[in-house]
Design goal:
The structure holds two protein chains of two kinds. Chain A is α/β, with parallel strands linked by helices. Chain A is built from four helices and four strands. In chain B, helix 6 packs across helix 11. Classes of the chains: A alpha/beta, B alpha+beta.
């Protein structure tokens, strides 16, 4: 990862996952911002801000895939890493294998 | 003896009625008044002689005929008894003697010629049923008020036989019990079959439950993945944190506590699943309908999320507890919730709303639970067959889910039915009686 980009956005509806991810990344030296829903992220986050996005796919309301699609359409879109949800969800949401990969957090 | 005399009396009555209605027919003795006095006396004397002779001859013939009829009647009675498996008994309060027919004695497991009193008869009845039997029979007002009961009898070899009994009390003018009598049927065979059926039904219920959970498995795996991911992240955080010489002990404690919580969460998911997978006897217990709904929504959470279904629950306040088997009722509600969710699969993702509503019907003392969806609704032709076994509209569906759900609700003394909602979608409703102490 580029040394300048030390910012990570977490979007996950599961509180325990959000907290734990945020903790391990903070300790690893990243600047972390977490959101409980895709809607929240869109509301509070300026799309221009560079950073790494960790997205949960299965969420109530706007799904991870929905968010990714809307971000890809916006100017200055950054490639996002989507945290894997379910094999079935991949087919369901029409996500391709390349766009959905399991995030690795080994420091 | 009594029975045969009764028949004769009825016979005479019938004949007299025939004569009266016939009008001009012959009546014995009518001619006497019309004859002259002398002839009358001679005739009367002769007639008396003839009558005496005829009487004795007839009496002897009748005695032997009656004996023959009686013996035949007894044989027939015994035959009928053994054919239908009926045994008769009666107890006389004044003498404390019990008379029991041959078949009754063999049902009770009592020697054929042993003299019998009330206590000896009661002694063969299962101790748990004894008091109930005595109480039930003494509640009978008279022979037209037959009391029915199921009881167990312990045979001489210690084996238990199920018996269906009908009995009544005969009372004097003051209402005191003079006699108790009734008949018994050995029901062990039927009872065995019923028990077997019950076991099969339980197996089937369990199998459909397992199939239901199969539908959830993908979503449940995902749900289990969440606490596991959290645990992994927390452990990695702790590893990173403690790789430095100096680290924040307070933060480490916090991380460890999180791991404990995550682990407990994972355990709860497995425990809920396990409770549904275990095959057990039906256990009725007091439970809140709100807890049932929350349990099921939690269980189905992953699956509903995956299908973009939003669930609203509305549970009225002050609903009394119901009596039920937690696992079986979860199965019913889970089935309805998953059906509702599936019925909305053709709706746009933002238009898949389900409502679960619970309210009290104070009039008939039941709790009504409804699952409402905004899906495609139910074909009118299908409405009456929905709860038939093997009726299914799903591809690959067994058609047992609703049939089993129905039998579960019926066993809870409730009712399960379906309606189409006025605007769109279907509604499934079931009622459960409130517990005795919770009754309004």
């Amino acid at each position: 990862m580029n040394g300048e980009i030390r910012r990570v956005f977490i979007v996950d509806d599961a509180r325990e996952v959000r907290t734990a991810l945020s903790r391990v990344l903070t300790i690893a030296g990243y600047q972390v911002q977490s959101f409980e829903s895709a809607e929240r992220f869109l509301e509070e986050q300026d799309a221009e801000t560079p950073g790494c996005l960790l997205l949960d796919i299965c969420m109530p309301g706007l799904s991870g895939i929905d968010l990714q699609h809307s971000l890809m359409g916006s100017p200055g879109a950054s490639p996002s890493t989507i945290r894997d949800c379910l094999q079935r969800s991949r087919k369901r949401f029409g996500a391709t294998r390349s766009s959905v990969s399991k995030a690795q957090f080994e420091a | 003896m009594l029975g045969f005399r009764d028949i004769e009396v009825i016979d005479v009555v019938v004949r007299t009625q025939e004569n009266q209605s016939g009008g001009a027919s012959f009546r014995p003795g009518m001619s006497i008044a019309m004859d002259t006095a002398g002839v009358t006396i001679a005739f009367v004397a002769l007639a008396l002689q003839c009558a005496f002779i005829a009487f004795f001859v007839r009496q002897r013939r009748r005695d032997s005929a009656e004996k023959k009829i009686f013996a035949e009647g007894q044989d027939r009675l015994a035959l009928i008894q053994s054919m239908n498996g009926f045994g008769f008994w009666s107890w006389d309060a004044a003498t404390d003697q019990v008379w029991a027919s041959t078949h009754a004695r063999s049902i009770f497991g009592i020697d054929q010629d042993a003299p019998l009193v009330r206590e000896a008869l009661l002694a063969v009845i299962h101790p748990a049923d004894r008091a109930v039997v005595v109480q039930t029979i003494s509640q009978s007002a008279g022979p037209s008020d037959m009391m029915e009961m199921e009881l167990r009898v312990i045979g001489q070899g210690g084996e238990i036989r199920w018996i269906t009994a009908k009995a009544c009390s005969f009372r004097d003018a003051k209402g005191a019990v003079q006699r108790m009598a009734g008949y018994v049927v050995d029901d062990s065979q039927r009872k065995r079959v019923t028990t077997e059926l019950l076991k099969l039904q339980q197996k089937l219920t369990h199998l459909t439950r397992v199939a239901l959970l199969g539908e959830l498995s993908g979503a449940l795996a995902h749900e289990l993945q969440q606490p596991l991911t959290a645990i992994l992240c927390n452990v990695q955080a702790a590893q990173l944190l403690t790789s430095e010489e100096q680290f924040n002990v307070h933060e480490l404690r916090e991380i460890l506590q999180e791991i404990v919580n995550d682990d407990k969460n994972a355990g709860q998911i497995i425990a809920r699943l396990r409770a549904l997978l275990i095959r057990g006897e039906t256990q009725f217990q007091r439970m809140e309908i709100g807890d049932l709904i929350r349990d099921v929504v939690t269980l189905a959470h992953g699956s509903l999320m995956e299908r973009n279904v939003q669930v609203n629950t509305r549970i009225d306040e002050g609903i009394p507890a119901v009596q039920g088997d937690r696992v079986e009722l979860q199965q019913v509600l889970l089935n309805l919730v998953l059906n509702a969710s599936e019925s909305m699969s053709a709706n746009p993702a933002r238009d898949r709303r389900m409502e679960i509503v619970a309210s009290l019907d104070a009039d008939d003392g039941t709790v009504l639970t409804s699952v409402l969806d905004c899906g495609r609704g139910i074909d009118v032709d299908h409405l009456e067959h929905l709860f038939d076994p093997f009726f299914t509209t799903k591809e690959g569906g067994l058609g047992l889910g609703l049939a089993i759900s129905n039998s579960i609700i019926v066993a809870h003394k409730g009712r399960l039915w379906a309606t189409n909602r006025s605007d769109r979608g279907a509604a499934f409703h079931f009622t459960l009686p409130v517990t005795e102490e919770g009754a309004p």
